[in-house]
Design goal:
Structural class: alpha/beta
CATH topology: Rossmann fold
Strand content: 5-15%
Number of strands: 10
Mean pLDDT: 94
Largest sheet: 6 strands, mixed
Oligomer: single chain
Number of domains: 1
Bound molecules: iron/sulfur cluster
Shape: globular
Length: about 300
């Protein structure tokens, strides 16, 4: 296949058009820049990018950094959460630290161990086979720390891509979790609080395989290993299902997101009256008297 612009050999397709490496990179970056502009995802220079050192967040940090410099907004700050997963997160943190150092980007590191007193490995060792999905605990704690440590910024950019987002729509529907479903989208969250930093997703309409190609072309020094605890996640069968659907219809994931966005406002109306409280223990925002992170913390001390 030839590049649709210059006739060089194509390395892959972006938005169904074949491109050589140079034009692939240009096409993806220009698509994301336009999306950020059109949806006003980056309103100021106080921008934080949540990073893990994987392909999605490293690509995102690179693109957001380029965008901000083009707009005269300086550079974002990278925020990385260390869950304490030996043999996995230690390696990705080394990679993202190198990337930030090379590109002169401030990196803020926060860890489960410092904040909660345990690593993810230690928690799972105690909980053992009783925990069906490590991600259900890890995800709560990660979101908690992300919000807490991004408070000085106007937005936090996350590397969620089209695949992640379509999977989340299907998972929330299957779990009948309409409250969580209503909070999805390229701007997440519904209720306003000074203690909530808006989360934005510049890769909302970019496929995972497109980001994979971008990260390879960009020659980022990253590993492509998956988290060892991800296998047990309910996301996996949903991922397989959507990939199968996409092999029959290339727009399958995009269709899920476009349908979701078409009903999001009506769905959100049902949850706008929910009140936001302060957790009685840690004083972070919570929809319940005690937030989920403090419940997990309490559980750890009771083991
Ligand atoms: Fe945590 Fe699950 Fe992500 Fe691993 S895959 S880092 S356990 S949320």
């Amino acid at each position: 296949m030839k590049c649709s612009i210059c006739n060089e050999k194509a390395v892959g397709s972006f938005q169904e058009k074949p491109y050589c490496s140079e034009h692939f990179k240009e096409a993806l970056e220009s698509f994301v820049f336009s999306f950020i502009k059109e949806k006003k995802l980056i309103p100021s220079s106080k921008v934080c990018v949540a990073v893990s050192g994987g392909k999605d967040s490293t690509s995102l940090l690179n693109i957001v950094s380029k965008y901000m410099q083009n707009q005269g907004l300086g550079k974002p700050t990278a925020l990385c959460i260390n869950e304490g997963i030996e043999g996995y997160r230690d390696k990705t943190i080394k990679d993202i630290a190198e990337f930030c150092n090379k590109n002169d980007i401030d990196l803020k590191l926060v860890s489960f161990k410092d904040e909660f007193g345990f690593t993810m490995d230690e928690y799972l060792e105690r909980e053992g086979e009783h925990l069906s999905s490590p991600c259900s605990v890890c995800g709560v704690l990660r979101r908690y720390l992300l919000n807490k440590h991004a408070r000085d910024f106007d937005v936090v950019c996350t590397g969620h891509n089209m695949d992640d987002e379509a999977q989340s729509v299907i998972m929330n529907l299957l779990n009948d979790n309409m409250g969580l479903l209503a909070r999805q989208g390229y701007f997440s969250g519904l209720l306003h609080s000074d203690k909530f930093t808006k989360r934005v997703k510049p890769f909302y309409f970019v496929k995972e395989k497109e980001i994979m190609i971008y990260s390879l072309i960009s020659k980022f020094n990253i590993s492509f290993n998956a988290c060892p605890y991800a296998k047990a996640d309910f996301r996996n069968p949903v991922r397989v299902f959507l990939n199968e659907k996409e092999s029959e219809d290339k727009n399958a994931k995009k269709n899920v997101l476009e349908f979701y966005l078409s009903i999001k406002d009506r769905l959100a109306q049902q949850f706008l009256n929910e009140s936001l409280q302060e957790c009685q223990i840690c004083h972070e925002p919570s929809s319940k008297r005690i937030c989920e992170a403090c419940r997990i913390r309490e559980k750890w001390t009771s083991f």
